[in-house]
Write a structure and sequence with these properties.
With 299 residues, the chain is α/β, with parallel strands linked by helices. 41% of the residues lie in helices and 25% in strands. The protein folds into three domains: 82 residues, Arc Repressor Mutant, subunit A, CATH 1.10.10.10; 105 residues, D-Maltodextrin-Binding Protein, domain 2 (3-Layer(aba) Sandwich); 90 residues, Periplasmic binding protein-like II (D-Maltodextrin-Binding Protein, domain 2, 3-Layer(aba) Sandwich), CATH 3.40.190. It is built from ten helices and 15 strands. Helix 1 crosses helix 2, helix 1 packs across helix 4 and helix 2 crosses helix 3. The radius of gyration is 24 Å and the shape is elongated.
C-alpha cells in the first residue's frame, strides 16, 4: 500500500469514525486498516488517532492533517472524474433518499437513469435519517423539509403538497372536522419524532390532536389511516390513488397546509460530477409527474 492509499485509509477512518466501517467501505480487512494507519503515523512522526477498544478520537494534529489531506484527495478525485466524464456520465452514482420516496419514486428513476447511461452504476440507499454525504461517499441526496443550514449545498427542486386525510369509516364514526379547531377532538396518525409533536398548523391556527397511531414509516402510517385509526398529515403522492378511489378522504380541504420543500443536496459546491448533475435534471423532470408536486425554477 503506497502513501496515497494510506492517506485515503486515514481519511475514511476519520469520516466513518470506525476502523471496521472504514475497512468495509474500502473492501479490506480491519487489520489492514490498522496497519496502514500505524505506517502513516510513523511516516509523519505524529499520532493522528487515539484508538481504544471502545472509542476512536482524532488528535488535534490528526484533525489538521485530515483537513489538508481531504482537500488533496478531493482535488485528485475531481480531476479523475472530470477527465472520465468529459463526454458522458460514467462511474458510480451514489444516491441517498427517504425510505418511502426512495421505494416509490427514487428507485425507478435511478434504474431508468442507469439504463439510459449504461456507463453509470447506481447505488441507491434509502434512509429517513439525514446522513453525512462526505462520510458516506454519496454524490447526491433527495431531502424533504426546510433546510436552514446555509453551509449545505442544494438545488431546490420544488414543494410537495401536504394534506390531512382519514378513512370514510373513521369520519362516519367520529364526525368530519368542520373547522381547524375540531381537530382537537380527533386522534392523530403521524410520524414519530416530529418537532411539532401532535400539533398541526393550518394557516394561522395551531391545534393539538390526541396522540393516536405513530410510526417512523409512511407506508405503515398509510395502512393505519386506511384501517380507520385517525386523521393523518401526509404528503399527497403517498395517498393520491387512495383519494381517487375513495379509500381515504381529504379533511378540511378549505384550510391548506404549508407544503414541504424538496431539495437535491450535494456534498460539495466546488465540484459536482456530471453524473450527479444529469441525474438531478432527470429527477426534476420526473418529479413533475408526482401528484401534488410544484416544481421550482431550475437553479
Amino acid at each position: 500500500m503506497d502513501r496515497l492509499q494510506r492517506i485515503r485509509v486515514f481519511a475514511k477512518v476519520v469520516e466513518r469514525g470506525s476502523l471496521s466501517k472504514a475497512a468495509k467501505d474500502l473492501g479490506v480487512t480491519q487489520p489492514t486498516v490498522s496497519k496502514a494507519l500505524s505506517a502513516l503515523e510513523s511516516e509523519v512522526r505524529s499520532q493522528l488517532l487515539l484508538r481504544s477498544t471502545r472509542r476512536l478520537t482524532v488528535t488535534e494534529p490528526g484533525r489538521r492533517y485530515y483537513q489538508r489531506c481531504r482537500a488533496i484527495l478531493d482535488a485528485l478525485d475531481e480531476a479523475d472524474t472530470e477527465l472520465a466524464e468529459r463526454e458522458a456520465p460514467r462511474g458510480v452514482l451514489k444516491v441517498h433518499g427517504p425510505v418511502v420516496l426512495g421505494e416509490l419514486f427514487l428507485g425507478p428513476v435511478a434504474a431508468d437513469f442507469q439504463r439510459e447511461h449504461p456507463q453509470v452504476r447506481c447505488e441507491v440507499t434509502c434512509l429517513d435519517a439525514f446522513v453525512d454525504l462526505v462520510a458516506e461517499g454519496a454524490d447526491v441526496a433527495l431531502r424533504l423539509g426546510e433546510i436552514k443550514d446555509p453551509s449545505i449545498v442544494r438545488r431546490r427542486l420544488g414543494t410537495m403538497r401536504r394534506l390531512l386525510v382519514a378513512s370514510p369509516a373513521y369520519l362516519k364514526a367520529n364526525g368530519a372536522p368542520k373547522q381547524p379547531g375540531d381537530l382537537s377532538k380527533h386522534r392523530s396518525v403521524r410520524f414519530t419524532g416530529l418537532p411539532t409533536g401532535d400539533q398541526v398548523t393550518l394557516g394561522r391556527t395551531t391545534v393539538t390532536m390526541t396522540p393516536g397511531f405513530l410510526s417512523n414509516n409512511a407506508v405503515v402510517l398509510r395502512e393505519a389511516l386506511l384501517r380507520g385509526l385517525g386523521v393523518g398529515l401526509v404528503i399527497e403522492f403517498l395517498v393520491a390513488e387512495d383519494l381517487k378511489k375513495g379509500r381515504l378522504v381529504e379533511v378540511l380541504p378549505a384550510h391548506p397546509l404549508t407544503p414541504i420543500e424538496v431539495s437535491a443536496v450535494f456534498p460539495s459546491a466546488r465540484f459536482i460530477p456530471l453524473r450527479a448533475r444529469v441525474f438531478v435534471d432527470a429527477l426534476a423532470k420526473r418529479l413533475a409527474e408526482v401528484p401534488g408536486m410544484t416544481l421550482a425554477a431550475k437553479a
